[in-house]
Amino acid sequence: MKKRILVACGTAIATSTVVARKIEEEMAKRGIQVDTTQCKASEVPSKVEGHDLVVTTTFVSGTGDVPVIHSVSFLTGVGIEKDIETIVEHLKD
Amino acid sequence: METRKERLERLRTKIRVERQATIDELARFFNVSTATIRRDIKALEVETPVVQTVGGGVLYQTEHSGAVDPRAGAHAIQEKIRIAEYCTELVHDKDDILIGPGSTTFLTGKILSGITDRSFRIITNSLELAIETSVAPNVRTVILGGEVFNRHSVYPDRHLEYFAGCHNEHMLIMSADGVDPDIGVTMFESRLVETVRRMIAVSDRIVLAADSSKFGRATYNRVCGLDAISMVVTDHNIDDAYISRLEEQGCRVEIV
Predict the structure, then answer these.
(1) Theoretical Cys-Cys bridge with B218: which of B123, B127, B178, B234, CB 3.0 to 4.6 Å?
(2) How many whole angstroms separate alpha carbon B230 and alpha carbon B207?
(3) Mean per-residue pLDDT for B227-254?
């Protein structure tokens, strides 16, 4: 079954577009099928339901039981491998 | 007194052992200026796997150097992202956007590639950014020619055909290493100063994206006065005194 990732950023929806694109690329390389949804950080509590993971470039709250990965590596280019590994780990469960 | 050679040796060892550091931490540790550390890192980059990263971080690069905590590798990264996000909202449909050198401008360019409701052109000297923006269907990317350095950027000092033939209505998103109300906008990297000046000359909207740590500082190369800047985007740690001095000189200040 496809895993669902909610990608949240601060003010501009553009940031989460970039991050979601990167995640999709990297997961596709690993043969993992994911569906990404984008939103602003403030919208996380209302949109988190039904997702397996939240990836955010900023700080979010109200995510309930859904694990959160805070990552700026998809923007800065530093530490992408490690963050990808963490995402893959979470999606295995 | 420690010689430069000795300091470089200690610096190399420190980075190798700790794998990562920030320019600020290293400057404090060696009790020298951040400019000196940047120069030292540049010297080390030539012969050892030490690299400066976006945001003032320093890495010891290996095959596994992806395993680095991004919080340590990037000074004030949350502030920079907020500033970059704000800057992307200033972009209009059909704009020609010059992206100046710097980590915050790099982030701005990268985030711009996620905008889907407007189309525009990005003009940059960063190979890395050009690769990122070229995948976005609504962004046309122009890369300024010149000599490539550090595998990811170009010094467009001798190949400025773009500027010779272009119009004067660009939006420029630029960065700085120092912003001082008296001295103006300064940069560390002398080889890029002329490029930024050319970018300023062809722009009618000039946005200076600079986190608050840049204020009250000045480095070697003066790029322009504050009167040239249309808007400053910075974070809330900026001193109120700077805000009024900037506004006196006609700069709009946005705090994000």
Answers:
(1) B178
(2) 6
(3) 93
A39 as an active site residue: the answer is no
d(CA B183, CA B111): 31
For domain B4-73, the CATH class is mainly alpha
pLDDT of B244 reads 93
Tell the residue number behind the tokens 């999709």, with chain if given. A24
Q: pLDDT at position B75, please? A: 63
Q: Looking at residue B49, what DSSP letter applies?
A: S
Please state, in angstroms and rounded to a whole number, the distance separating the CA atoms of residues B233 and B104.
11
- 3-state helix/strand/coil string of B173-190: EECCCEEECCCEEEECCH
Interface test with B, best of A72, A74, A86 (most B CBs within 10 A): A72
Which tokens belong to B165?
Answer: 């033939």
Domain ranges of chain A: 3-92
Nearest CA in chain B to A22: B132
Residues of chain B neighbouring A17 (CB-CB closer than 8 A): 114-116
> Which residue bears the tokens 């170009």?
B154
Q: Which of A9, A48, A68, A84 is catalytic?
A: A9
- The Cα–Cα gap between B224 and B78 comes to 27
CATH 3.40.50.2300, domain A3-92, yes or no: yes
- CA quadruple B75, A13, B122, A29: dihedral sign: positive
Interface with B, mutate which of A78, A86, A87 (most B CBs under 10 A): A78
Q: What is the CATH superfamily name and number for domain B77-255?
A: Translation initiation factor eif-2b; domain 2 (3.40.50.10470)
Alpha helices by DSSP H, A1-93:
13-29, 44-47, 73-76, 80-92
Contact, B199 vs B172, CB < 8 A?
A: yes
pLDDT score for B125: 86
CATH 1.10.10.10 spans which residues of chain B? 4-73
B78 CB neighbours in chain A (<8 A) are 58, 72
